């Protein structure tokens, strides 16, 4: 028959084992990329690397006191210097992939553990080569001694992360008594980040076109202005209201009976002037006629030798000429 004492001892052993197995963890936020699979395990569990009175230390306070005492005599600088590049402390970055998918840094200035830290010992967080968080006992600083209360490391200043990204490194050296002996458990996580919290990469403002060299084409205003403006090269449509069908220098160019459209002056129907009624220019004086639109002329400035006859102020605007005049004018042209 199994004694009650034996049963209680077995239950206590199982409880201790469960607590020992589950009392691990990793940085869960920002999220790491795993080399193989997600795990809470330490990278290595080793005997203390500094000789001293570890086994005589009383509880967690005794372990921390012994670590602090021996650190001074062993030229201890920080966990990263102690644990990286030394195979005794396991592979750098542990089970996490430093070249994995970059994670966005938390905007609350914190890094969150997967569970509560329940072992005494120092921890550190680095962003590239800058230490941004350190404590000699992360269990008391960021937990309550139970794994149910998730440990949150803060403040973590993510602003030192470069705009192009950086690498977060987490180190924790857990000091633990196991079967009456002291052991060191090494934890290492590496998590690539996209950049500082909230961004930081410069934003490129698109050009507004204010410095553009592209010329702007304006229609003729018909107000008598001598400012040279480039009109479209499409032929006149025959609509007298089209800006391109009016002479820029003569508001009365629509009149069929005006001297500007019928006289033998240099602006006559046979002239090469752009204001000619028979001109090949798009601005034909025959624009009110239903006749076939004039052939577009090449874009060239008016001849300097061809004077333009100013319009008569006494000439009233007339209604468009009947189609018979257009027919007679065609016969004369042929």
Automatic annotation (TrEMBL):
Keyword rRNA processing: no
Stretches with biased composition (Low complexity): 202-245, 260-292
Entry superkingdom: Eukaryota
Signal peptide segment: 1-23
Biased composition (Basic and acidic residues): 246-259
UniProt keywords, alphabetically: Signal
Residue ranges, annotated region (Disordered): 194-334
Annotated protein name in UniProt: Mucin-like protein
């Amino acid at each position: 028959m199994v004694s009650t004492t034996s049963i209680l001892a077995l239950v206590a052993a199982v409880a201790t084992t469960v607590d020992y197995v589950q009392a691990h963890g990793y940085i869960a936020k920002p999220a790491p990329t795993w080399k193989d699979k997600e795990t809470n395990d330490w990278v290595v569990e080793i005997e203390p690397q500094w000789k001293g009175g570890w086994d005589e230390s009383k509880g967690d306070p005794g372990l921390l006191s012994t670590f602090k005492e021996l650190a001074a005599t062993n030229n201890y600088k920080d966990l990263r210097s102690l644990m990286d590049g030394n195979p005794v402390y396991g592979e750098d970055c542990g089970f996490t992939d430093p070249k994995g998918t970059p994670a966005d840094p938390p905007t609350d200035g914190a890094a969150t553990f997967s569970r509560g830290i329940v072992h005494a010992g120092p921890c550190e967080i680095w962003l590239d080569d800058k230490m941004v968080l350190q404590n000699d006992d992360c269990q008391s600083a960021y937990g309550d001694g139970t794994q149910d209360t998730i440990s949150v490391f803060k403040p973590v200043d993510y602003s030192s992360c470069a705009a192009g990204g950086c690498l977060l490194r987490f180190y924790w050296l857990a000091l633990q008594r196991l079967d009456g002996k002291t052991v060191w458990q090494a934890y290492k996580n590496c998590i690539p980040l996209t950049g500082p919290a909230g961004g930081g990469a410069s934003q490129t403002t698109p050009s507004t076109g204010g410095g553009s060299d592209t010329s702007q084409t304006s229609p003729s205003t018909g107000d008598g202005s001598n400012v040279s403006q480039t009109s479209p090269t499409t032929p006149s449509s025959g609509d007298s209201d089209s800006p391109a069908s009016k002479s820029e220098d003569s508001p009365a160019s629509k009149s069929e009976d005006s001297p500007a459209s019928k006289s033998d002056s240099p602006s006559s129907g046979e002239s090469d002037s752009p204001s000619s009624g028979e001109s090949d220019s798009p601005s034909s004086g025959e624009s009110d006629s239903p006749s076939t639109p004039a052939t577009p002329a090449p874009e060239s400035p008016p001849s300097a030798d061809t004077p333009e006859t100013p319009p008569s102020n006494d000439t009233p605007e007339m209604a468009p000429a009947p189609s018979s005049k257009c027919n007679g004018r065609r016969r004369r042209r042929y």
